[in-house]
Amino acid sequence: MDRFRVAGGARLAGTVSVAGAKNSALKLMASTLLAPGKTTITNLPAIADVDYMAELLTRLGCTVEINKEQGEVSIDVPEKLEHRADYDLVRKMRASINVLGPLITRVGEADVALPGGDAIGSRGLDYHINGLIDMGAVITLEHGFIIAKAPNGLKGAAITLEFPSVGATENIMTAATLASGITTIDNAAREPDVVDLGEFLVSMGAKITGLGTHTIKVEGVKQLKPTKHATLADRIVTGTWAFAAAITQGDITIENGRAEHLEVPLDKLVEAGAVITTTENGFRVKMDKRPIAVDVATLPYPGFPTDLQPLVIALNAIADGTSLVTENVFEARFMFVNELVRLGAKIQVDGHHASITGIKQLSAAPVAATDIRAGAGLVLAALVSDGVTIIEDAFHIDRGYPDFPAQLQALGADITRV
Ligand code: UD1
Asked: Which of 51, 118, 186, 320 is catalytic?
């Protein structure tokens, strides 16, 4: 198992370049199933989940070619598809659940393993399932699988989500592309990843309006055609670099970073004392003093993203002042706080609130990454601690940050993979 060895005392400075978003790339790949023929996706991040998704699509009958150097995948989708996604892959990669919508609408059946619990909360699927049932699918849960059937195809429906779930919006939107009639999704997720997927579907011939708003409208078409699409830049990786600059009192220029997708987090960094300027192809974050503590509540987009919550807690742990961070999206996302406390952070968790008293310096200690973003938060915290920190279970970090140690080294950090 890989670990990261991180020496404290870094001030990160230089330029980084952001690749395509994990959460967009995997959903785009899953949605190629909607159109027989060869679709190409570019600007792919070099992460293991891309290989897992390729494996899943191969098992469903596709021919998948990944070009790692170019960051490209081409997926040749056959006329006749298999319809089963097994537990071994769904368990590794929750985005596997995104084959449900495309399979049920195109094949008329889908057997998708239930992902089960993970380290950031229960993450239900009831909105996905109820949405598809409203469209006429018959769905049962058997032996750990979602068994969905719609032998005569799906019908458009008016669906209101209880919560603007990213995954449910995506599964219902993809299913609706080939349904008969019009589907409306009210209280839809507005995340840029959902918009990216919607635009991809439109380029395949889908009829979708309202992307990026609360109401998405999909008019079903008979068939979709293959396309070529570049994955949207990863806004969470972009945000991670912005926090990295602020936490280490550094100066980072983030190429391909889209500041307009991070308005709330960047406002928080300015409140914490950072200076943010736009550059030709992204933006620059500079911090010249100890950050000032900031209060944050996570919310669906355009609110503060839950995926950046560990990063703002890491910032507050070494900031001047006390702060309150409220997690409104995933209830169990404070697991990593215990790891940060091992580094000396002063944090009290009460339900979905964490109150943090900033201290001047953290103290190095062995810790373990509990999920992707928590792992990134620990790396940044370790960079401002007083010695050498070993971070176990670094595979979590690799899932979201292609070659994080090399990128950090290029900015002046003392970090190695051991
Ligand atoms: C996606 C991202 C994840 C990100 C999150 C929020 C992927 C693989 N994951 O997760 O990285 O942190 O968006 O931006 O893309 N819920 C239900 N029932 C449902 C669906 C969701 O109760 O059927 C709840 C969840 O438990 C959670 C909330 O709704 O509390 C939001 O979930 P959702 O937006 O669906 O997140 P994911 O798509 O799982």
From this structure: 118
